Amino acid sequence: MSLVIRGGRLYDPAQGIDKVGDLHLENGKIAEKGTAEEEIQAKGLLVVPGLIDMHVHFREPGREDKETIASGCEAAVAGGFATVACMANTGHPTDTAAHVTYVRKRAEEIGLANVHPIGAVSKGLRGEELAELGTMARAGAVAFSDDGQPVLNSELMRRALEYARMFDRVVISHCEDATLTRGAVMNEGEVSAELGLRGWPNVAESAMAARDILLAELTGARVHLAHVSARQTVELVRWAKRRKIPVTAEVTPHHLALADDRLREYDSRFKMNPPLRTAEDVSAVLAGLADGTIDAIASDHAPHTVEEKEQELAACPNGVVGLETTVGVVLDLVAAGKLPLARAIEALTWAPAGILGLRRGTLLPGVSADVTLLDLKAAWKVDPKSFRSRGRSSPFSGMKLRGRAVHTIVGGRLCY
Q: What is the mean pLDDT of residues 106-135?
């Protein structure tokens, strides 16, 4: 099958390409030229490498009431994502080669987004004993993480890094000192004091980030800091990169755009892990993303049932959905002049591909024909009722955004 995308603005930060032209897709690959069995008219649209979300939670197997791999993939392509990487904290944790194989094969059967499993660091995500990292790597795990739970045992984290280095995999760190966050509902600060809610201090994130940065320096292994939210953590990553320590980091759209004052109405849509921080923290992570200190943008798509999220604030689980709003939030920041377009697209394509070791995230000929078409001017209102995801808890519900994905092509197939 051949497809040509006509007259779009081809934009690929990995190659330094920004020009109006045609893009040819042949037999599932990007081609220099080819025939045109099918065409997509892309005048006025931004044509970029298929977007990559390196941090999502598809709850299958075990909690299909929250999200299935099928519904997650539908949400991904609707949001412009051709590729996602799934965290291990499913109903039955992805801590063996068999679990990795299940996720990979199930996604292949569905045939929408590319799905890359992330294996657990520890058996059962309990933080007590290393999981089977080698066999999971051979089965297709692109990284290892106990995300959702911190690895509190420093010796275990050190061994995980050493083993991951043997298999050229990155360890993704959920930076949280859980001894400082027990019972916490939101960020520790003026707003939590005003509302009488137990707070979560910035240091609970930054202290663990510091530990894992130093362990990366000790072992020479790659560590990636998930969902950076605190200004101190941004400074630590900046320091680590100056020292050439193999550390990368990501930030979520909600930590780029929202602050802890959103909790004044006790609305569970704004409860997540890590919590929304202060306006100063928001400015710091946004600046860190803009200057390249923070490498990638990831949704941390974490669906829960409506019944779970409608509990009172202290009882409801952390987590919000994001696959179908990430692009809109990020492009809205670009439109507002808060984030350079090149940095935004790189953080959603080439950067996560490099962190996970994927040959994706570029329009280079010969690479898989994963392409996303973006309308930078499209104005739309977030309506969770229209989501493909089974999750409905969005902190952006009702907000008006500027910019969205209009087509998602995966392996040369128009999937959205």
A: 97
81-86: strand order across its sheet: 51-56, 81-86, 114-117
Our CA dihedral for 279, 283, 288, 291, rounded to 10 degrees, sits at: 170
Kindly indicate the confidence band of residue 230, based on its pLDDT and cuts at 50, 70 and 90.
Answer: very high
The model carries a pTM of 0.97
Q: Where are the domains of the chain?
A: 50-362
What is d(CA 410, CA 113) in angstroms, rounded to the nearest whole number?
A: 7
Burial, 351: exposed, middle or buried (Cβ in 10 Å; 0-12, 13-18, 19+)? buried
Q: Tokens standing for 111?
A: 């045939």
Residues 228/222, Cβ–Cβ less than 8 Å? no
User: Which pLDDT value is given to residue 37?
Assistant: 81
pLDDT band at residue 290 using 50, 70 and 90 as cut-offs: very high
CA-only gyration radius of the chain, Å = 20
361 band by pLDDT with thresholds 50, 70 and 90: very high
- In words, the CATH class of domain 50-362 is alpha beta
Task: Determine the Cα–Cα distance for residues 381 and 275; give it in Å rounded to an integer.
Answer: 24
Question: Among positive and negative, which fits the CA dihedral 139, 144, 147, 152?
Answer: positive
Asked if 82 and 111 count as a contact pair (C-beta separation under 8 A), the reply is no
Does 1 score more than 90 pLDDT?
A: no
Query: Which residues form the catalytic set?
Result: 300
What separation in angstroms does the CA of 247 have from each of 293, 301, 312, 317? 10, 23, 37, 29
